[in-house]
Design brief:
The chain is α+β, with helices and mostly antiparallel strands. 62% of the residues lie in helices and 16% in strands. It contains 5 helices and 4 strands; from the N terminus they run H-H-H-E-H-E-E-H-E. The longest helix is centred in the middle third of the chain and has 81 residues. The protein starts with a helix and ends with a strand.
């Protein structure tokens, strides 16, 4: 509406200027049958009535440039709106990904916690079974009736450090040996400065080596023969 009003006003001004110019040219024209009329007007009046050439040219340029400027402004607003929409969409996608990542982390944490508790429960069960069935527990020895001490050999399947975790590991290994090789006495002792798990009472090294080969095939790769004091029947 504003652009139409400006265009109409400009057309009226141009029409008035054209009529004024035509009237002056008519008065100044020479007619052979009549006298000659000469009209003079000051430059200021001419500019006031007809307007200067520069002003007309500038007005024409302004009128031509205004629609283009409005179109560019509209285009800029559209581009800014589209950019804002894309930015909001990226923010929503980022928030969704972050929420999904946090949910995955929470589920993974819960899963690890369940697995840890299951491992602890299994280890506690093995230790309980070992304590119920082992011949010797911790550093206390059961005195066997009709037995004596002698120099001989045992198979060592675990040697750790002086920690609670290594003690538990030694007891766990003892329970495993007790299950896989029934009938063999198992000994879990603290031989300073470490906790160890050994089994068997072998009078000679040959018998100990035969057992060592057998138990290594069962998966006890770090097992070795130890010369020590053993308990034998009288």
């Amino acid at each position: 509406m504003r652009r139409h009003f400006i265009t109409l006003a400009a057309a009226l001004c141009l029409s008035a200027a054209t009529q004024a110019q035509t009237f002056l040219e008519h008065l100044q024209s020479e007619d052979k049958s009549s006298g000659q009329v000469s009209v003079k007007q000051s430059e200021d009046i001419s500019k006031l009535v007809n307007g200067s050439g520069k002003e007309k040219e500038q007005s024409t340029k302004t009128e031509a440039a205004r629609p283009a400027g409005e179109e560019r402004a509209k285009q800029n607003r559209n581009e800014e709106s589209a950019s804002n929409s894309r930015e909001r969409e990226r923010e929503r996608e980022s928030a969704s990904k972050n929420a999904s990542s946090r949910a995955d982390e929470a589920r993974d944490k819960e899963r690890r916690e369940r697995e840890r508790k299951a491992r602890e429960a299994a280890r506690a069960q093995k230790l309980k079974e070992f304590e119920e069935n082992t011949t010797v527990s911790d550093s206390r020895k059961k005195v066997m009736s009709n037995s004596k001490h002698a120099t001989g050999y045992r198979i060592q399947v675990f040697a750790g450090a002086n920690t609670r975790a290594d003690r538990a590991k030694a007891q766990e290994m003892g329970a495993k040996v007790k299950t896989q090789i029934p009938g063999q006495p198992v000994y879990v002792h603290f031989y300073s400065p470490r906790w160890c798990c050994r089994f068997g009472n072998f009078r000679n090294q040959e018998d100990a080596n035969k057992m060592l080969k057998k138990i290594k095939k069962m998966g006890f790769k770090n097992a070795c023969v130890i010369k020590t004091t053993i308990t034998v029947n009288k």
